[in-house]
Amino acid sequence: MVTTDIDWPHLVFSVGAGLGVLLIGIGVLVLCSGIAGVLRRLNGTLDEIDKQIGALGAPVADTLGHVGGIADTADATVARLGEVVGSLEVVAAQVVKTSDLAGRAVAPAIVNVGATLTGISAGVRRLLTGRRSDDGLGAAEARPAPAPRPAPESAPRPSSAARTGGLDEDDLL
Length: 173
Known about the structure:
The protein is an all-alpha fold. The protein contains 4 helices and no strands.
C-alpha cells in the first residue's frame, strides 16, 4: 500500500472548482431551457400571425386592385378633361376672332347708314322748306361763336416759408 500524504488544500480547491463548474453548467442549462420555452411560444405566435396575414392577403390584394382601377379611371378622366379644356380654348379663340371680324364688318355699315340718314333728312328738309339747314349762310356764319373762356386765375404764390421751410421776414409783416 502506498501511503502518501494528502494535500488537503489542493484537494479542497479542486473539489470546489469542480462543484463551481458543475453549478455554472446547471445554471446555463436552466437558462437555455427558459430561452427555449420563450422561443417555442414566440414560434407559435408567429405561426398564428402568418395564418392571419395569409387570410387577409386575398382581400387586401382585391382592394388594391380596385383602388388601382379607380386611380386608372381617374387618370383617364383627367386626361379627357384636359382634352376638353383644350378644345374649349380653341372654340373660345375662334369665337373671339369671329366677333372681332363681325364688329369690323358691321361698324362701317352703321357709319354708312348714319351718313345716309343724315343726307336723306337734309334732302327732305330742303324739299319741304325750300331752304338749307344753315339758312343760306356760310358754314362759319351759321354757327354761333363760342363763348370766350375766362382767364385762369393765378394761383397764390407760396410763401417764402414754404419755399425755405421756415419763417421769413415777409411772413411777419
